[in-house]
Amino acid sequence: MKKVAFIYPGQGSQVVEMGKDLYEEYPQVRELFDSANEHLGYDLTSIMFEGPREVLTKTENTQPALLSVSTAITKILAENDITPSVTSGHSLGEYSALVAANAISYSDAVSLVHQRGKLMENAYPEGKGSMAAVLGMDQKTLSNELHNISEQVDGVIEIANLNCPGQIVVSGTKSAIDTAARHLKEAGAKRVLPLPVSGPFHSSLMKPAAEEFQQLVHNIKWSDAEIPVYANVTAEKVTEKEQIQQLLVEQLYSPVRFEEIIEQLLEEPLDAIVEVGSGKVLTGLVKKVNRRANTFSVQDAASLVEFIEWIKED
């Protein structure tokens, strides 16, 4: 059997009708989605399939929705004897990776990420926090520019996501990011794009949410991961449950080091890196790190069948 890594998408990959064809075709997906509705106490499935987009995009809905689609596909692949030798995820996607590694049950994970979404949504006053993607600037230059900007503005601006070469996300107070956007363009950034998010995620402004989240994490049953998971905070493999718990808390206010994770995966003896879940965002990031990397995006019933056929080829 071919060796593959599974990587799981995070917030931003959600779309209305996500998972609908899987739900219609596979009884086990219906069972999984119905169990999510039961654990959450509301009809998440209807929001996923029908929207409206504004409701699906609410962090408390987006997070369990993305987890559910990723886990459903992982479950079908496992039933076909297809499992990853290593796994990871982007921000929220790390929870899908941990479910795949049997470090946490799906039912506990779906409830936890729903609460995580609420805490992130409420951690900072609405409209006062922001995030933006900085394109065409390397990390060292950006760090120096942010240091200069922070001395000139009354607010917070920090690196939040290191996604791939030339694509870094910053997070902080809206006023600081608005000021930084103008400054960074003058300093050589190709573009600075505001992101449609409700708060300053992966910044120090999330620390109050992390304190409350830590209690939620420790109230859930965890196991050591059965396969290695690359953690967002360290870009290193983890398997021990105590370390997993601590890193998930730190993840809320720490940069996502996804470019480093991709580089590590490219050093693994793998036949492919497979994005499992809604969208193709992570597949694009992998290609920007190494355009020759062998990748698959498994996001719906058609791509699922295609991937199963490929992996079972001699």
From TrEMBL:
Active site: 91, 202
Domain of life, source organism: Bacteria
Residues in Malonyl-CoA:ACP transacylase (MAT) domain copies: 7-306
Keyword tags: Acyltransferase, Transferase
Database matches in SMART domains: PKS_AT (SM00827)
Record carries keyword Acyltransferase: yes
GO molecular function: [acyl-carrier-protein] S-malonyltransferase activity
Alphabetical list of Pfam families matching this protein: Acyl_transf_1
EC number annotated for this UniProt entry: 2.3.1.39
GO cellular component: cytosol
Reactions this protein catalyses: holo-[ACP] + malonyl-CoA = malonyl-[ACP] + CoA
Gene Ontology process terms (BP): fatty acid biosynthetic process
InterPro entries for the chain: Ac_transferase_dom_sf (IPR001227), Acyl_transferase_dom (IPR014043), Acyl_Trfase/lysoPLipase (IPR016035), Mal-CoA-ACP_Trans/PKS_FabD (IPR050858), Malonyl_CoA-ACP_transAc (IPR024925), Malonyl_CoA-ACP_transAc_FabD (IPR004410), Malonyl_transacylase_ACP-bd (IPR016036)
Protein family: Belongs to the fabD family.
Name of this chain's protein: Malonyl CoA-acyl carrier protein transacylase
Gene: fabD
